[in-house]
């Protein structure tokens, strides 16, 4: 009996440390954040007044929150679409194993291991309106400098490109792993039947990559909704609030506005959006 009990408990003992850490640093803060969202208070006085859904009702009339939320949705859609398409294209182009493709993979993956702050500083140095490398090159070619970070449309484009550049290498590796699981015999049979590379892509590669594509889409969506450091360093949400996303609005509400309970309500909304999108994507995958 003791041997059977020990055998039954052994797996749980192995996962217990990770479960404990996850509970302390993830589940517990989430629970505190949910509780805080029903109160009003600050860092000094603590929870002062129970307001129920008052913070959530206030969100519906908060222009800064609604603006950052709309900016976030546009940003997520563009970034996720670009990341999925570019990472898949790179994975197909670099699928073959050789020294050249190995070096290319390393080059595309390097931005992934860089700190988001480093990425933001590097892109700000390149696209600065006054001292940026890009404008210096344009000036040497006789072209007028472009207000990359001070014009609304250019700033949004730079933020999106910087985010895609920092993420695409990671998802490229995932797609390469997915491509390697597709049997080569399928492509050989397709060639015998006269299928060209484009037909092979649409009829073999893309359908069999559906689970990988779904995983990449979910991960890229979650990471895009959490975007913060790169944008904070690159534009600080500017010009104006053109590139201020939801996470930065939460940060500014909590620390600059000294209103952690209201920020907690915004965090709960963000969590709900991510949960809903993930469930929808999983449901679509299950139906397919």
What keywords describe this structure?
MetI-like fold, globular, single chain, two-stranded antiparallel sheet, 288 residues, 2 strands, mainly alpha, 13 helices
Topology:
Elements: H1 2-36, E1 39-42, E2 46-50, H2 54-59, H3 63-93, H4 99-113, H5 116-127, H6 133-140, H7 152-180, H8 184-192, H9 197-208, H10 210-225, H11 229-234, H12 246-256, H13 260-287
Antiparallel strand pairs: 1-2
Helix pairs in contact: 3-7, 3-10, 3-12, 4-7, 7-10, 10-13, 12-13
Number of helices: 13
Spans of 5+ residues with little confidence (pLDDT < 50)?
Answer: none
Q: What is CATH's topology name?
A: MetI-like fold
**Beta-strand proportion:** under 5%
- The CATH architecture designation is Orthogonal Bundle
The structure class reads: mainly alpha
Q: Can you tell me the CATH class?
A: Mainly Alpha
With strands numbered from the N-terminus, the spatial order across the biggest sheet is 1-2
Query: Helicity, in percent?
Result: over 70%
Rg is 24 Å
Shape verdict:
globular
Average pLDDT score: 89
How many structural domains does the protein architecture include?
1
Give me the count of strands. 2
Instruction: Give the termini separation.
Output: 46 Å
Largest sheet: 2 strands, antiparallel
- Report the CATH superfamily: MetI-like
Order of helices and strands: HEEHHHHHHHHHHHH
């Amino acid at each position: 009996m003791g041997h059977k009990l020990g055998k039954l408990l052994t797996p749980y003992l192995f996962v217990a440390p990770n479960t404990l850490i996850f509970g302390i640093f993830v589940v517990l803060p989430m629970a505190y954040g949910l509780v805080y969202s029903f109160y009003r208070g600050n860092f000094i006085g603590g929870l002062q007044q129970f307001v129920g859904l008052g913070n959530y009702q206030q969100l519906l009339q908060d222009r800064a929150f609604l603006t950052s939320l709309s900016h976030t949705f546009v940003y997520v859609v563009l970034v996720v679409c670009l990341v999925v398409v570019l990472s898949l294209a790179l994975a197909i182009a670099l699928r073959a194993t050789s020294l050249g493709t190995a070096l290319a993979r390393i080059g595309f993956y390097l931005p992934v291991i860089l700190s988001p702050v480093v990425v933001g500083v590097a892109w700000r140095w390149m696209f600065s309106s006054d001292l940026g490398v890009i404008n210096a090159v344009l000036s040497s070619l006789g072209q007028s400098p472009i207000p990359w970070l001070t014009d609304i449309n250019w700033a949004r484009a730079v933020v999106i490109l910087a985010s895609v550049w920092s993420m695409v290498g990671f998802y490229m590796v995932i797609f390469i792993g997915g491509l390697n699981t597709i049997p080569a015999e399928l492509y050989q049979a397709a060639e015998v039947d006269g299928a060209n590379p484009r037909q092979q892509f649409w009829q073999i590669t893309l359908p069999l990559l559906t689970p990988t594509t779904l995983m990449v889409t979910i991960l890229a969506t979650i990471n895009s909704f959490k975007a913060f450091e790169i944008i904070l360093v690159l534009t600080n949400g500017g010009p104006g609030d053109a590139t201020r996303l939801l996470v930065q609005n939460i940060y500014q509400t909590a620390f600059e506005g000294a209103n952690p309970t209201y920020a907690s309500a915004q965090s709960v909304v963000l969590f709900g959006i991510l949960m809903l999108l993930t469930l929808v994507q999983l449901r679509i995958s299950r139906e397919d």
